[in-house]
Amino acid sequence: MIFRSALLGLAVLLAAEKGSALSQRCSTQCPLCPEPVPCPVPRCPVPTCPTLPVPPPCPVPRCPPIPPIPPCPPPLVNVSCPEVSCPEIPCPSCPACPQPPPCPPCPTLPTAPPTRALPSGYREEPGLGIYKVYRIRTSWPAANETCSVDGGYLAVPNSEAEKDLFLGWLDSNNLRYGFHIGIVRSGFGRPFTTVLGESLTSAQIDMWKSGRVSAPIGNDCTYLSRSHAAIAAEQCSDTEPYVCELSRV
Ligand SMILES: *[C@@H]1O[C@H](CO)[C@@H](O)[C@H](O)[C@H]1NC(C)=O
Ligand SMILES: *[C@@H]1O[C@H](CO)[C@@H](O)[C@H](O)[C@H]1NC(C)=O
């Protein structure tokens, strides 16, 4: 070993000298020499490398047993499945319900009379009648005519309730004397009747104030006197307000 190291050391030394000689010229120049003398080239020995030991062979690895590969699934095939139609099972149907016996026909109701619209200004007083108060003073014949045009007649108060109703209107309308009344006679000595042709007895009218007949010549028309709260005779040309009454249908 010592010998080998010495050899190596010598080789390194020689190699170093050889390197410096190759890179430069010797600087020892004599004045007589035209050229510098080239440096001597060293003779390097071929180094003998030590033989490296051969590595031991690698041990064969002991691998665990490889598990068996499961078989591959069958490749997917573009298979079109046939359509399976399910058989239709009919549902059991319910037994028919027993039908109720036919209803007896309803009795035909009498058709209600059409409620006619009241003419302008007319109002129904429940239990008494349908009336319109005319506050404008006119003669008895003109009042009779107006009521006729309205489709009615000059009102006749043939009950205490109706008379009180009319007297109330005289008060509420602040009418001083009274209303023309649908009771008239065709002349002195003739009987007074209603404009509907009824006798006063059948119409149950006590028209004479204080139970005394007071219908002189020329007083062939009548009015309901506010101050006397009774029916009295008047001249047909006298002007008074009046009440028209509609006949019930
Ligand atoms: C599968 O079938 C359908 C319809 O026939 C077709 O459009 C499709 O390209 C097919 N696929 C393959 C991978 O063959
Ligand atoms: C009252 O009017 C009716 C209808 O227009 C008419 O028939 C009747 O003669 C009149 N009565 C009087 C006394 O004018």
UniProtKB/TrEMBL annotation:
Highest taxon, organism lineage: Eukaryota
A Pfam family matched in the record: Lectin_C
Listed CDD domains: CLECT
PROSITE patterns per UniProt: C_TYPE_LECTIN_2
Keywords: Signal
InterPro entries documented for this protein: C-type_lectin-like (IPR001304), C-type_lectin-like/link_sf (IPR016186), CTDL_fold (IPR016187)
Segment forming the signal sequence: 1-21
Domain C-type lectin intervals: 131-245
Protein name, entry field: C-type lectin domain-containing protein
